[in-house]
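Reopening this one. Same input as before:
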Amino acid sequence: MILSAEVALITGAAQGLGRAIALAYAHAGCQVVVADINETGAREVAVEIQANGGQAEAVCLDVADVHSGQAAVQAALRRFGRLSVLVNCAVFAKYGPLAEVESAVIDRMLAVGLKGPLLLSQSVAEPMRQAGRGVIINISSVVALTGVAYSSAYASLKGGLDAMSRALAVELGPMGIRVNSLAPSAIPSAMSNANLDAAGWEERRRRTALGRIGTQDDVAAAAVFLASPAAAFMTGVVLPIDGGFSIAGMVPGVDLATVGRTRR
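Same output, byte for byte:
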């Protein structure tokens, strides 16, 4: 899966999944625009890519600001002359009981995680249309596929993001632009580690069909695939990267105990 013909703008790329995707894209030969509201972090990732022989440009981007998004797209076009891939990875998330969900927090989550991707998709659609091809990848979540307690606001924005992917896939498909979502389960990162303790991680591991927690590299590899020619006939898809978490009806250990009882 070679991306040497691609130029990608990746949001939230200073850390976590965004950084992992930026590094994986560069390793596959892609020219990368590392975009993040954390400008210092974005520059560090760009320098890391360059130190390993890749091509990268860092830009400061607040995805919730339409003018900031337009400026980032123009910076990519000036630097590399084209823009063929957009990965919407930037996120602001806060979990908690429904009674404790705050209006201001909802506003910020939706601004970063739903409004931002829509505005950036709008900004990249025209240069992609002119080129006759393009790829938009939205980083969703398994919480949009299955019920997860204390995640009502987060699930709402990720479900909206998946709906947006399907709608844009139909609208932009005739222009040669593919739009898909990746839906990871909980992946170790600074954000997820702040919300899950050791017992929480173990519970998720036990509920995962493959019996392990996923890694940032697992998600990055799937993002490389969706941007590559190997996925040329895929659009409007929500692709779970969760080791079977979203399809597991019960904790595997509980299932085995149930089977044991019914055999007696």
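So the earlier flakiness isn't reproducible anymore. For the record, The first strand starts at residue 7 and ends at 11.
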